Amino acid sequence: MTTDNASALRALHVPGTPLILPNVWDAASARAVREAGFPAVATSSAAVARVLGYDDGELTPVGEMMAAVARVARAVEGVPVTADVEQGYGLKPAELVERLLEAGAAGCNLEDSLPGRGELVDPGEQAEFLAEVRAVAGDALVINARVDVYLYGPASRQEAVTRGRRYLEAGADCVYPILLADEDEIAALVSELGAPVNVYFGARTPGLGRLAELGVARISFGSGLHEASQAFTRGLIADIREGRRPF
C-alpha cells in the first residue's frame, strides 16, 4: 500500500493555514477543483448519493459509492483524494480500508452517528472502530473523525472535546465537529484539542480568513457546492420552460 498521497494530504493539515476542500460529487467537479489549483480533493457523501439517485444516510450501495470515489481519484491522478464514507457502510475495518485504498483514496471521513437515525454512537465504540481502521491502514489513510454533537445535540463543547480526544488517541489525524460555527467555540475547541480541527463552511460560519486566524486546519464545504449548482441548474431549466434563453 502506498502512503505518498496520504503523507501529502496529512501535511496539508496546518492549523492557521487550513486545507480548503470544495467537496466534489463526480469526476467533472473533481477536475474543476484540481484545475483551480487546490492541492487535494474531497468527496461529499450526500452529493455523491444524490448524483447516483439515492438519499444520504448510507442508502447508496457501498459498491456504487466506492466506484464513484474511484472515478474521482482517476480523474485527478496524483492529487490526494479523501472520501466521505459516512459510518463505513457497515463494513468491518479491514474491508473498509481495503476498498478505500483500492478506490485510490488517501483519506476518509468517518462520523460518530448512526446514518439516517440521528443517534450518536458511544464514543468508546467509535474510538475502538477508529483504532481498528488505523491499525489496518497504517499511514496509508488520513482519518478525519467527525464529531456530530453539534448536528444531533445536545451541543456541548465538553462532549465534543471528550469525543475528539478519544478519537485522536485512537489514531485520527483530524477532528471534524460538523456544524460548529461560533467563533469563540471554534477557538476554544482548537485550543483544547491541540490537534488539527476541520470546520464545515456554512451560512453562519466565519469567513475563510477568520477561520485561519482561529487556528482551523481544514475547511470543508460538504454538499453545499452541489446544492448551489443544482439550484442554478433548476433556474436554467425554468428559463427554458418559460421560453427564455438560459444562456
Automatic annotation (TrEMBL):
Keywords: Lyase. InterPro entries: ICL/PEPM, Pyrv/PenolPyrv_kinase-like_dom, Pyrv_kinase-like_dom_sf. The keyword Lyase applies. This is 2-methylisocitrate lyase-like PEP mutase family enzyme. The lineage of its organism: Bacteria, Bacillati, Actinomycetota, Actinomycetes, Streptosporangiales. GO terms for molecular function: lyase activity. Signal peptide: none annotated. It comes from Nonomuraea rubra.
